[in-house]
Design brief:
The structure holds 2 protein chains of 2 kinds. By secondary structure, chain A is an all-alpha fold. In chain A, about 75% of the residues lie in helices and about 0% in strands. Chain A has one domain (about 5-140). Chain B has helices spanning about 5-25, 25-55, 75-105, 110-130, 135-150, 160-190, 195-205, 205-225, 230-240, 240-265, 270-275, 280-300, 305-325, 330-360, 375-390, 395-410, 415-440, 455-475, 475-495; strands spanning about 60, 70-75. Classes of the chains: A mainly alpha, B mainly alpha.
Chain lengths: ~140, ~500
């Protein structure tokens, strides 16, 4: 029986398909629970990217590149940085110093919460995009 | 409100421009974004400089967290003037870059080039402005990583090797600096520079401080390309796109030298660095050997870029020698030469950029009678070259005069004599090139008629802006000497 490339590693492919949603979910947990527990943008970004890297390893780079094209990654990378800096600029426009989260809400506690949330989201987006691009970069060179 | 936020905008403006350059993608649009950001940065730097001169030191608490706990930006006359210099050089070279990048950088990658440039500018300005030792390292990494990228944009395959070699050396330098900062933190329990300066006298006897001092010295020597550790510089300057070389020659090593000043004078204090630690015993021989040997090596280079790169290492030798004098006069001479050399070297590299843009290479032996086809470029090269030698009425004279004056004052006659000898070498290496450009008859008839081969106006105008500024500061040398004197006083006086 001749196997087409896509039919090879069937077990791995099915297991990967099962795992990927949980990896993504865990990444989101680490991202958004970072305010209360261990976690944050850097870790979450890496975990989120690892789902795509796993997809790339099992299904081939071609298919992953269709899901997340390098152009989209470039935009995501910049958007993450812009979100981070945008938060900083917003606090400055609201009358505080750069990244003074107290300005973001009426009471400082909520303000700090929002500030960390936005900044870490920016970090998470950029880290995900950078990790996946690094993988593309290494995997596509022979 | 804006006036309070100037230190933050100084970093935020170029940093915002970097992702925007990536988002717009189009080459011209990315250049426009970078150019506007650069001009705003320059404007901001000028406003900051004026504010500092009027009000004195500014301390800006990031995120509203007060100093020893949070990160602060500490701006005094010393770093405000370096910030102004870096923003100015970057703006001028950015205008110059438009045509040069189109011709030399791979099409389709221009937006990444400008983005990396903006990140590099962010890093360099951040290193200067911050008052937190660890933050220095973070910004150092931002600027270094983007520099490696900028160098790798060079046309040749060898650019990758040059970039990789710089990456290895730069990473070693940066990790040494990080280890040094780590030991300082272990010994004193703080990262804030003002706090460090207060606590180090009590911890001076600890071995950790000694280790920190040694690691920082080596790390900063690598980063600022002081003589025996300059190996990365020549290849990097030669292989990088010329705009990058012109930008880096005026900014990157100068910023590292500023960090060196900040650590040795403000944080450790001159009594510890040059008294107890005998730093001048290490640095002075390196500096003197640097300016003598590197000037000599520069004579034998056939590639203009390489010649100027070795000459840069020699000039850094002068600056370090001036620092070693460790007096008000010596430090003033060193700081003045940081400014003056940045202006001269960027102008020289830009004129070489114009030549490469038109002729296609930089082999100095084949520029027969280049003056007849590119009179303006060659004139700019000659004027800046005279500045490098230190002819009166140029900025080079101002800095060499004050350097020799300072060494006489200290009683180091021999150093002053060696500076003069090294200036003679400079006459030889600049003179050799100028002789070919002006007087040697062309071996074959070129099809171009006289004056038809000049570089575009958008490259000549920024070049002449730099030349004009350097002449201006050469004639009224007291302006820069005055600012440098204030900066030296601020550094020697320690933190208030």
């Amino acid at each position: 029986m001749k196997l087409y490339p896509r039919q090879r590693h069937r077990v791995l492919q099915i297991v990967t398909k099962l795992i990927i949603p949980f990896v993504l979910l865990f990444a989101l947990y680490v991202q958004f629970h970072g305010d209360y527990g261990p976690g944050g943008g850097f870790q979450a970004g890496v975990i989120f990217a690892s789902a795509f890297i796993l997809h790339g390893l099992i299904f081939g780079l071609q298919r992953t590149r269709q899901v997340l094209t390098p152009n989209v990654l470039r935009v995501l990378m910049s958007l993450g940085v812009l979100l981070y800096l945008g938060t900083g600029v917003l606090t400055m426009l609201l009358g505080g110093n750069l990244l003074d989260y107290n300005m973001l809400a009426h009471d400082p506690k909520t303000g700090q919460h929002w500030g960390i949330f936005l900044v870490e989201l920016g970090v998470g987006i950029t880290v995900t995009a950078v990790m996946v691009s690094l993988f593309y970069g290494f995997a596509s060179k022979r | 409100m804006i006036a309070d936020q100037l230190p933050a905008w100084q970093i935020v403006i170029p940093m915002l421009a970097a992702p925007l350059c990536v988002l717009v993608r189009n080459s011209t649009a990315a250049w426009v974004v970078a150019m506007v950001a650069n001009l705003l940065t320059l404007l901001n730097a000028w406003a900051l400089f004026v504010q500092i001169r009027a009000e004195g030191v500014i301390r800006y608490a990031l995120g509203g967290w007060a100093a020893p706990t949070g990160i602060e930006y500490y701006v005094d006359i010393a770093n405000a003037s370096v910030i102004l210099l870096v923003s100015f050089i970057s703006s001028v070279v950015m205008v110059f870059a438009f045509h040069s990048v189109r011709k030399t950088v791979l099409t389709g990658k221009h937006y990444l080039f400008y983005s990396a440039w903006m990140l590099c500018l962010t890093g360099l300005l951040g290193i200067c402005i911050t008052g937190d030792a660890f933050n220095v390292f973070v910004f150092l990494e931002i600027s270094s990583l983007s520099t490696y990228m900028l160098i790798a944009f060079g046309q040749d395959k060898r650019a990758f090797t040059a970039s990789f070699r710089y990456l290895i050396m730069g990473s070693i330098g940066a990790s040494f600096i990080l280890i040094g900062i780590g030991f300082l933190y272990a010994a004193t329990g703080t990262l804030n520079m003002v706090d460090l300066a207060q606590r180090i006298p009590d911890a001076e006897s600890k071995r950790a401080v000694l280790v920190a001092f040694s690691f920082l010295t080596i790390g900063l020597m690598i980063k600022s390309a002081v003589f025996p550790l300059h190996g990365w510089l020549a290849n990097a300057y030669q292989q990088a796109p010329l705009v990058v070389t012109a930008f880096l020659a005026g900014t990157a090593t100068k910023v590292s030298l500023y960090v060196l000043l900040r650590f040795f004078f403000s944080i450790f204090g001159p009594d510890y660095s040059f008294g107890a630690m005998l730093l001048n015993v290490v640095l002075l021989p390196a500096a003197v050997a640097g300016f003598l040997l590197m000037s000599l090596v520069a004579i034998y280079q056939t590639d203009l870029r390489r010649m100027l790169a070795y000459s840069s290492v020699a000039q850094i030798g002068y600056i370090i020698a001036a620092f070693c004098i460790a007096s008000q006069a010596g430090l003033t001479a060193g700081i003045v030469h940081i400014f003056n050399h940045a202006l001269i070297k960027s102008a020289l590299f830009m004129s070489v950029g114009c030549i490469i843009y038109q002729v296609g290479h930089a082999h100095s032996r084949s520029f027969d009678n280049l003056f007849s086809t590119m009179p303006f470029t060659v004139s700019a090269f000659i004027i800046s070259g005279l500045g490098l030698i230190g002819v009166p009425l140029t900025v080079g004279f101002v800095s060499k005069f004050s350097l020799i004056g300072a060494s006489m004052e200290k009683g180091w006659w021999l150093i002053g004599a060696m500076v003069l000898v090294s200036s003679l070498f400079a006459i030889v290496y600049i003179g050799r090139v100028v002789e070919v450009m002006l007087f040697r008859k062309s071996r074959m008839e070129t099809p171009h008629s006289v004056g038809s081969n000049e570089a575009p106006l958008m490259m000549l105008v920024p070049l002449y802006v730099l030349v004009a500024v350097s002449i201006w500061f050469g004639i009224s040398g007291s302006t820069t000497l005055d600012v440098a004197g204030q900066a030296a006083r601020a550094l020697l006086g320690g933190y208030q």
